[in-house]
Amino acid sequence: PPVADFTFTTAGCYTSPVSFFDNSSTGGRAIISRFWDFDDGNTSGINNPTHTYAAPGTYNVKYSLITDVGCLADTISHPVTLDDLPTALFSATAPFCPGVPITFTDLSTATGSSTLAIWTWNFGDGSPNVIRNTSTNEVYTYAAPGTYNVMLTVETAAGCASQVFTFPLTVLQNGSITLSSPAGTDNQTVCINTPIANITYAVGGSSDGGSVSGLPAGVIGSYAGGVITITGTPTVSGTFNHTVTTTGPCSNPTATGTITVTPDATITLSSAPGTDNQTICINTALTPITYSVGGS
Predict the structure, then answer these.
(1) What whole-number distance in Å separates Cα of residue 54 and Cα of residue 12?
(2) Other CB atoms closer than 10 Å to residue 239's CB: what's the count?
(3) 3-class secondary-structure state, position 246
(4) 75: closest CA among 18, 34, 117, 40?
């Protein structure tokens, strides 16, 4: 009697077609009828069919045949195991800033007995794909701010590919600081105990705060709503070089300025005591009276 048998090839995942090949022995007799049962409710009567399954699992595929003289072969069964798709996944380590290397950590997984063999990275900025044959933590640097769709696809050793995992990554702008009060207010001279002209700086980009150092007593710096304001009334004299420092996740610039505080004017008798209060006769020379003038 004829002996039915078959082989098959598969990429190992259920979304890929399985190809079946007749490997029967009929003693040279022609086969006039074939019956394939794919164990999912579908059948076929053709030679060497292909079939795509709708879900992962193990399917006991059955095959039988009839020769031209009416001999029926016993049904042969082989299990076909199909895994779910592998899963592409990764995380990214902040901060995301121009010129700063970003680490992408691979978290991809395979299912069943399959193993991952190919990782294809696309960093979304027009650069060529990066293809690896082992799991690696990729390090990539973006030159400019913007939103980039970083994509990863993984593939098993049998050729079963994952869905594309997409990570929208926003690269922030570097911080910025600009004098927003009138020109020259960052380098002013005032008298002691006199309010300064307010000094303001607009803070932009990824900067989200700031502080000021080097101010005279009575003058303070504060941040609110994207603006650093220096205001107050100095209570000490001197030259004060202040530094405005921005804060934020990316590059944070600084600005500098000077506030010069002059003391109040002073006047002191510099001639001999009493010369400022003297009595003399007419036509008699006055003893010179002198004063030293200081401060502002």
Answers:
(1) 13
(2) 11
(3) strand
(4) 34
| pLDDT over 70 (residue 296) | no
pTM over 0.90: no
Q: How many CB atoms lie within 10 A of CB 295?
A: 12
Q: Which residue has the tokens 């699992």?
A: 57
Rounded Cα distance between 242 and 201, Å, is: 13
**To which H or E segment does residue 192 belong?**
none
| Degrees, nearest 5: CA angle 270-273-275 | 85
Query: What whole-number distance in Å separates Cα of residue 263 and Cα of residue 245?
Result: 29
CA atoms within 13 A on the CB side of 81: 5
Phi, psi of 67 (to 5 degrees): -85, 175
Copy the structure tokens of residue 40. Answer: 């999912």
Alpha-carbon radius of gyration of the chain: 43
Burial state string for 261-293 with b = 16 or more CB within 10 A and e = fewer than 16: bbeeeeeeeeeeeeeeeeeeeeeeeeeeeeeee
The average confidence (pLDDT) of the chain is: 95
Sign of the CA dihedral with 66 first, then 69, 70, and 72 last: negative
**Residue 199, token pair as written in the block:** 């000094």
Q: Is the pLDDT of residue 152 over 90?
A: yes
Closest CA to 238 of 179, 192, 186, 193: 192
